[in-house]
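All the exercises in this workshop are built on plain-text protein records. Instead of coordinates, the fold is spelled out as a row of discrete tokens. Once this layout is familiar, the rest of the handout is easier to follow. The record below serves as our worked example for the rest of this section.
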Amino acid sequence: MSQKTPGDAENVMSFEEAVTRLEKIVADLEGGRYSLEESLQKFEEGIALGNRCRQMLARADLRVRQLVEAGDRMVLEDDAPRRDA
């Protein structure tokens, strides 16, 4: 049986779950809730979550751009004059 690491959980989190977790980490760090060592671990987790969120946003942005570009091509093709055979 393999043991799960925090990085494993990040890979299955939705964007919304990752943002919520990141917000909690930030609030806890700002509140001075953790020891120095715990704070460093939470900071590291927060950095990883932030990077994951940026990657997810970049993929979503690329997908939207591709869909818009494909939609534009469809519109341009629909506007082209039709030749009756």
Observations:
- The first helix runs from residue 6 to 12.
